[in-house]
Amino acid sequence: MFKKTAMAAALAVGVSGAAAAQDEGLISFKIMNPDVAVELAKAGLESCRAGGYQVAIVVVDRFGNTQAAIRDRFAGPHTVETARRKAWTSVSFRTDTLAMADLAKEGQPQWGVRFVDGALMLGGGVPVEARGSIVAGVGVSGAPTGDADDVCARDGIEAVIDQLEF
């Protein structure tokens, strides 16, 4: 009887210790360095230029705050805000906006997310993941299609991923 009680007590202490470790008052997280955010934006811009597109690219941190923004000289005046909203949407919903556009079509269960203030369900917003966590988001606006914006965003991420996957 004593042996079973001692084992149960040890198990309870072990479980409560693990629970306490997960319920600390502070947490740690990774966030992209601003220099890397600028490099990502530049690489995405170069990708779009190679395709003949004049775009704006915005990189936001994991919380949706702008870290870097570039607008090519002939990109429309709306493109910076559109790119920011795409990047914000990608980190907020933790998925790319090309997929979100399909998931949130009229008649779909997720249709209502289109009405979230600031959300933009157009292709070109991609979350940046490193070591299993979202560390940033990138949004591109100005190419002729959301698919083309998405490619430029992913090319920008690819250019810096080695700096994030240490």
Number of helices: 5
CATH class: Alpha Beta
Shape: globular
Calculate the mean pLDDT score and round it: 89
Strand content: 15-25%
State the low-pLDDT regions, or none.
Answer: 1-20
Radius of gyration: 21 Å
Distance between the termini: 51 Å
In brief:
The chain is α+β, with helices and mostly antiparallel strands and 166 residues long. The protein contains five helices and four strands; from the N terminus they run ααββααββα. The protein has a single domain (34-164), classed as Haem-degrading domain (Beta-Lactamase, 2-Layer Sandwich), CATH 3.30.450.150.
Care to describe what's here?
By secondary structure, this protein is an alpha+beta fold. It has one domain (34-164): Beta-Lactamase (2-Layer Sandwich). Helices cover 48% and strands 16% of the residues. The chain contains five helices and four strands, in the order ααββααββα. A four-stranded antiparallel beta sheet has the order 2-1-4-3. α2 crosses α5 (146-164). The radius of gyration is 21 Å and the shape is globular. The model is unreliable at 1-20 (pLDDT under 50).
